[in-house]
Specification:
Helix content is about 25%, strand content about 25%. With about 280 residues, it is of the alpha/beta class.
């Protein structure tokens, strides 16, 4: 079992509000208390989860492009599952899905973003939430659903958020995939209108808590739209630099730039550690 050989998270400080859930469930005791406030009106509470090196790099590119390659820690992978327990859906950009597929993780048709740990699967089932859902964001919709395991419907339901042109191109494919739902929203620059997107997710499925797992481009655009409420950030004790043979390694915000005056301000909510890895929680 995944959890057998893992360590507990050492709580350095934690100032979150009372989760309202009473005692910490045994399956989550390794991390300790974890709760979320009520979502804002008309949209989900949106929280993001990322791993970065000490110098702020979130992808090594090439065959080691995933956050797990920077973290290198089973406790970080377990925490990702714990954050999925609390989410009604996981949102991911198609660029991230394509990158994971190129690395053949976990297989030739790419990943399904779901809870893997059996104990945490059972914990989520007790929350009464609907079946796990992946939300893939793509303005152009220029891909084949059959190329990606996430659209099979065997493990999670899937939604595609796209612009009208992308919806038109995907309509026939979606008709052949009963577990896939298509959501068309307005374009915004070269992406989709994310305010419309998250409002549609709330209205259509009753999603109250939405977890963004990347990539940096989607996160940047959510943050620029002031839609990210919280961020969970794992800092790995690793320094790698911005340049690699494959190109310039991205930081957390490749698609956003703020001045000192309009930059996003965070409150440091908690900090935990496992060995030399730091696990931070920030709230906007």
């Amino acid at each position: 079992m995944m959890t057998a050989s893992m360590r507990d998270f050492e709580i350095l400080f934690d100032t979150q509000e009372d989760s309202g859930e009473g005692s910490v469930p045994a399956e989550a005791a390794r991390y300790g208390p974890l709760g979320f406030p009520a979502p804002p009106a008309g949209r989900p509470w949106i929280y993001a989860n990322f791993v970065q090196s000490v110098d702020g790099i979130v992808s090594l590119l090439g065959e080691e492009a995933g956050g797990s390659d920077i973290a290198g820690l089973p406790e970080d992978r377990w925490l990702m599952d714990l954050l999925r327990v609390h989410a009604d859906a996981v949102m991911v950009g198609m660029g991230t899905l394509r990158a994971e597929k190129r690395m053949r993780r976990p297989g030739p048709r790419g990943p399904v973003f779901r809870i893997v740990d059996p104990e945490l699967q059972r914990l989520r089932a007790r929350t009464g939430r609907a079946r796990e859902r992946n939300v893939l964001v793509s303005a152009r919709g220029n891909f084949r659903l059959d190329d990606f395991a996430v659209f099979d419907g065997t493990q999670v339901n899937a939604s595609i958020v796209t612009a009208p042109q992308g919806a038109a191109g995907l309509k026939d494919q979606v008709a052949a995939h009963p577990a896939v739902d298509l959501i068309s929203v307005d374009s915004a620059g070269d992406g989709v209108d994310l305010n419309q997107a998250v409002a549609a997710l709330h209205q259509r499925y009753g999603i109250r808590y939405l977890l963004c797992e990347g990539g940096p481009m989607l996160y940047s655009r959510l943050l620029a739209a002031r839609l990210v409420d919280e961020m969970f950030l794992t800092v790995s004790p690793l320094t790698v630099g911005a340049q690699s043979r494959e190109g310039h390694r991205p930081t957390l915000l490749p698609e956003a730039s703020f001045s000192r005056e309009n930059g996003v301000r965070w409150r440091w909510l908690s900090c935990r550690k496992v060995a030399d890895h730091q696990f931070h929680r920030f709230r906007r």
